[in-house]
Amino acid sequence: MPQGALALYRRHLSECPHASKGNRWTRCQCPIWVQGSIGGEAVRRSMNTTNWTAASTSVHQWQSSGRIGVLKPELPSIVDAVAAFLKEAETRNLAATTIQKRRELLEGKLLPFCKSKGYRQLRDLTVDRLRAFRHGWTYSPLSAAKRLEYLRAFCRFCLDSGWMERNPASALKTTKVSHRPTLPYSDEEVDRLLEAARKMQGFGRYGPRIEPMILLLRYSGLRMQDAACLERKRLADDKLFLYQQKTGTPVYCPLPPGVVKTLAAVENDNEQYFFYDGSSQPESMVKSWDRVFKKVGTTADPPVANCHPHRFRDTFAVSLLLKGVSLDSVSKLLGHSSIKITERHYAPWIKARQDHLESEVRKIWA
Q1: What are the phi and psi torsion angles at 164 (to 5°)?
Q2: Are strands 239-244 and 6-10 parallel, antiparallel or unpaired?
Q3: In terms of domains, do 114 and 193 share one?
Q4: pLDDT in tens, 237-291
Q5: 5 Ramachandran zone, left/alpha/beta (phi>0; psi -120 to 50)
Q6: In this structure, what CATH number is given to the domain that contains residue 106?
Q7: Full DSSP string of 114-137
Q8: Cβ-count burial of 28 within 10 angstroms (0-12 exposed, 13-18 middle, 19+ buried)?
Q9: pTM above 0.90, yes or no
């Protein structure tokens, strides 16, 4: 018998009428045994069955797994693997936006692609096929790089689950991303936007809330979704609670008295929040505010190009850097997971801060 092979045979009972047929006879009810080795592990034992087909199936699964007595698990389809991956993301309590982006890529693009090509099993996801899948993307370079991370995470999940022998997405090269310098609003642009907000008081239910929202974004650096769903209890006196650090230390941001007064005057049927009604999806709120800010930008005189709420976050960060606040402090206020993220986004403005300091020193020369 060759090394690494298993062989089945019958151990005929004394009363078996087929004993003369030999120990490979499949039609009697005598016990079936197995003998051989896999991966250096020798075996000679009963299969605890008299059914030759069942014994052959078990031996085949042992050989597939490479271990005696270990049955190779049935591999899920691509559809089932995607569902398991997204379920795991929910169990890990990842952010809703992160889960939504992964769902959009896998359920919205990967599954339709696989269906159109007839790919059903995970073994169908080869490097070349995943490369062809990426060729159909229309994302910006930065978004494409993030989607590749999601695709790699999905394949890594399948690999760790024992469903893949290797991660085919790891062979795909990352999209080259050119980071453009962050462009904040100028003080003059903020004044024009505030003036436009006052002209839009009658702009539906958002009208009276536009000016308070602009001031909140400008002086807190909050992301749009966090600002839209801000709870009133997070503002104590003039300090706005931003988030809890991993060390358990809370991070607060003081707000100017005028901003605090404006926020306190915001009327909302849901007294728990400043702007949120408590029933809409947060993602829908963000999209609505995006549309509102576009309208504010066109209403301003002269209009403010590329009016987007996230630019207020950039304005907040850059204004701190220009005043000499350390990059580490700005990173904590923005809630970045790493100071490297802050440096990547605002590196050009760190130099501008230095130029500002130098100009201040030159003032004493006179």
Answers
A1: -125, 150
A2: unpaired
A3: no
A4: 999 999 866 566 789 999 999 999 999 999 998 999 999 988 888 888 899 999 9
A5: beta
A6: 1.10.150.130
A7: HHHHT--BGGG--HHHHHHHHHT-
A8: middle
A9: no
